[in-house]
Design brief:
The protein is of the alpha/beta class and 371 residues long. It contains 16 helices and 13 strands. It folds into two domains: 182 residues, 3-Layer(aba) Sandwich (Rossmann fold); 176 residues, Glycogen Phosphorylase B (Rossmann fold), CATH 3.40.50.2000. A seven-stranded parallel β-sheet has the order 3-2-1-4-5-6-7, sandwiched between helices. The protein has a six-stranded parallel β-sheet with strand order 10-9-8-11-12-13, sandwiched between helices. Strand 5, helix 5 and strand 6 form a beta-alpha-beta unit.
Length: 371
């Protein structure tokens, strides 16, 4: 018997790609056949997605573009939908799963036209524009946060909370013991900048840490992701203030660095937030203010309200304010430990399995097997 085929529609940033990769790994382990549909940007995926048969279609974003560019994008979406319809007719998948972003739109629209069972996964605490367009058409809406803004009342009965699927190396560190904090022990700080707007973190954080009392500075072990052009400047600040720091434009051992951290400081993208929660680490989140619909602020607020971290909007994120916050937090290990427990309670290490279970429930072959 041929295994059921599941098509994944994803593309664009890591926030869309990482959960698709996690689901692909989970479904492959369960014996499903898989395919990936993406746009021209999806050329060199690694991991589980890199092993899939990949189909490229046209797509185009509309938000924030000029009228001529919007017209061009609408035409690309129309062509992409036709391409996706032909592809689905040929492949006959049992379920199609979309992960947001305009690259997923043509495939998901084609699937709904053909009455193929569909799921969309929303990574953020605010429903993205692509998923808002698709929400009324699909069978199931999987969410990462208990409260997802932007959902209409008519679609709320479709919602299933799965959490945000994270990469396997991160999931393996779920609920790792929080590092001990004693009077003279090291204090690990992990700074993840994200792909956009990381320069403000490089400008503010080193200066803020330099303002801390000497007794505190001597205990710091900082790991910081910086843009290539910021590395030398940031390194000079740390060295001149006697702060031990490891700096890199790309950190390839994030899971290990994360479990050794007492505190994270990062943007509030879905991947960074979810990974901190799964591992159970408190975080100071600085939402990227120019993210689409300011969705990072919704993510950071959800974490803040749950007691799993703290939001610091970029317009108030300065060296003095951050130094005051860090001086207080690093001197209160019981607060950090409590926040770490809240983070772990909010994280969903089994999100990929939960999402895979939703996929299985929608597969016609699964329904027949249950009869």
């Amino acid at each position: 018997m041929i295994a059921p085929l599941i098509l994944l529609a994803a593309g664009g940033t890591g926030g869309h790609v990482f959960p698709a990769e996690a689901l692909a790994s989970e479904l492959a382990d369960q014996g499903f056949r898989l395919g990936l549909v993406t746009d021209k940007r999806g050329q060199a995926y690694g991991g589980a997605l890199g092993n899939l048969t990949t189909h490229h279609i046209q797509a185009g974003g509309i938000a924030g573009k000029s009228v001529p560019a919007r017209i061009k994008s609408v035409l690309a979406l129309a062509v992409g939908t036709w391409q996706a319809w032909r592809l689905l007719k040929k492949l006959r998948p049992e379920v199609v799963v979309g992960f947001g972003g305009y690259a997923s739109v043509p495939t998901m629209i084609a699937a709904t036209f053909m009455s193929v069972p569909t799921i969309i996964h929303e990574q953020n605490a605010l429903l993205g524009r692509a998923n808002r367009l698709l929400a009324g058409r699909v069978n199931t809406i999987a969410t990462s946060f208990e409260k997802t803004h932007g959902l209409s009342e008519s679609n709320k009965d479709k919602v299933q909370l799965t959490g945000m699927p994270v990469r396997a190396p991160i999931a393996a560190k779920a609920h790792a013991p929080y590092p001990k904090t004693e009077a003279d022990s090291r204090l690990g700080i992990l700074v993840l900048g994200g792909s956009q707007g990381a320069t403000v973190l490089s400008e503010v954080i080193p200066v803020a840490l330099a303002k801390l009392p000497d007794a505190l500075k001597s205990r710091l072990e900082v790991t910081q992701q910086c843009r290539e052009e910021d590395l030398n400047r940031v390194k000079a600040v740390y060295q001149s203030n006697g702060i031990h720091a490891y700096l890199a434009s790309f950190i390839d051992d994030v899971p290990e660095r994360m479990i050794n951290a007492h505190l994270m400081i990062s943007r509030a993208g879905s991947s960074s937030v979810s990974e901190a929660l799964v591992v159970g680490r408190p975080s100071i989140l600085v939402p990227y203010p120019y993210a689409a619909d300011d969705h990072q602020t919704f993510n950071a607020r959800a974490v803040d309200v749950a007691g799993a971290g703290w939001i610091m909007p970029q317009d108030t994120f300065n060296a003095d304010a951050l130094a005051a916050r860090l001086d207080s937090l690093l001197g209160l290990p019981e607060v950090l430990e409590k926040t770490a427990r809240c983070a772990a309670d909010l994280g969903q290490a089994d999100a990929a399995k939960r999402l895979a279970d939703l996929v299985k429930k929608l597969t016609p072959s699964h329904e027949r097997a249950g009869q």
